[in-house]
Prior knowledge:
Blueprint: H1 26-31, H2 34-55, H3 62-81, H4 87-113, H5 119-146
Amino acid sequence: MNREPLTMNQGRPEPRRRRLAPLMTEEAKATASIHELSYDFGCRITRLFQYLTEDSEYKEYIQSKQIYRSGTSIGANIRESKHAQSDADFLSKMSIAYKEADETDYWLNLLHDNGYLDDKQFESLENDITRILKILTSIVKTVRIKLGMEKS
């Protein structure tokens, strides 16, 4: 009787490898829209979550879940703003995106200061969130001026 040797999966199909979209280069980020930047950042945060919970020695679930929720919420709110029903609705979505970005910055600093992110990882993510915060600050301020809620 010829039998093939048993494999680890005992005849089950091999697990599929995830195909990851390439991330933006620094050159591309320099001219990208807030929609593109926030989506790219959401991809990075998703990968950070997997790293913290599955791929690293840490198996950190509490802070990683918080940064995952706030970090991906930025892009979701910016995406919703594309279909705002009014300038006030647009302002509301962008303001929420700003708050989520600021919260994400908090979690990044906490993860870094407690040794879950090394300096290189932190600086790369910090540069991205700082860029997003600056753009969102400008958008919110501009719309508030347009709505007469703030002086120029």
